[in-house]
Amino acid sequence: MSTIKQNLVEPTQTKTPGSGVSSIGNLKKAFPNAPQYNEYKDAAVKSFYEDLLNNANGDSSDIAGYYGISGFSLNYNENNPPKLEDVETGGGGLPATSFSPNVTSPGPGSTNAAAQPEYTGDVKNIDTINNFGSGLGGLVSPSETSINMSDTKLGSYISGRSFQGSNGNT
Predict the structure, then answer these.
(1) What does the domain layout of the chain look like in residue ranges?
(2) E strand spans, the chain
(3) What 3-state DSSP class applies to 77?
(4) pLDDT tens by residue, 59-72
């Protein structure tokens, strides 16, 4: 995460208007009803973002209103986060394993994933996969990590980790 403060809706004028620099005064006159020039401030934007992202009020209709998708929540905890061991595999557009896509071709001239045959080639045993780097790795089920990630607040990020303990240590 950047340590440099970014402008949200409260613009700062640090340079004299000129070539390549906007004039806040002129923008206010051109767009007097724009929220950033009125009561809508950075704290309200951060709060709105966290509520929407983490669905703090537990109401999925907020998301539907903004994205036009009914019954959808960005919060895994509401959507029964997937467990890798429960992923259905096979042909017809299903993945080859719970952690890899089906790489088979649906056949000459077809782009229909539903026509894919089951992948019958060799796949790695999940227990023998050694993830590059540190952390829990890409083979940890979202059902195990989503609870911690759903509590993330702006400014509480831990450099190099998704949440406390996600590096494999406590």
Answers:
(1) 29-79, 80-148
(2) none
(3) helix
(4) 555 555 566 666 66
